[in-house]
Amino acid sequence: MPADFNGTWNLVRSENFEGYMLALGIDFATRMIAKMLKPQKVVKQEGDSFTISTTSTFRNYFVQFTIGEEFEEDNKGLDNRKCKSVVTWDNDKLVCVQTGEKKNRGWTHWIEGDELYLELRCEGEVSTQVFKRA
Ligand code: VLZ
C-alpha cells in the first residue's frame, strides 16, 4: 500500500526556489513575486491516478497523471516549456522525470511525519518545499 498524499496542503517553508526559477529562466520580476508566494496544493489520489492543483494569489498550476504513463506537460504559467513527463513510485516517494530542453528536470514528493515534501530539480538546482495540512 503506497503512501497517501490526498489532502489540502499549505506551504510552510521553502529552500532555493529562487535557484530553481533561475535554472528555468524565469524573469526577475516574476521571480520577485513568486518567491513571496505561499502556494496551496490539493492532491487527489485514487489508486495510481493523481491530480495536483497548486494555487496561489499570482498563478495556478494543474497536473494530472497516472503512475507509469508518460504525458505531455505544458508547464503553462511556469516556464511554458513543454516536456514529456512520467511519474513512478520509488518506495513511498512519487518521482517525476520531466524530459525536455532542460537537463535533470523533475520533482519528488514524499511525506515525513505530518509534512508533505516537494523537491524540485532543474539542471544543477534543487529546491525543497515543505507543506502542512490545511
Ligand atoms: O509541482 O511543479 O506538486 O506540478 C508555483 C506556482 C508552482 C507559482 C511551482 C507561480 C510548480 C510561479 C511546482 C511562477 C514562476 C510543481 C508539481 C508537484 C506539480
TrEMBL record:
It comes from the Eukaryota. The keyword Aminoacyl-tRNA synthetase does not apply. GO terms for molecular function: lipid binding. Keywords: Transport. Pfam families: Lipocalin. Residues 7-24 form the Cytosolic fatty-acid binding proteins domain. InterPro entries: Calycin, Fatty_acid-bd, ILBP, Lipocln_cytosolic_FA-bd_dom. Belongs to the calycin superfamily. Fatty-acid binding protein (FABP) family. This is Cytosolic fatty-acid binding proteins domain-containing protein.
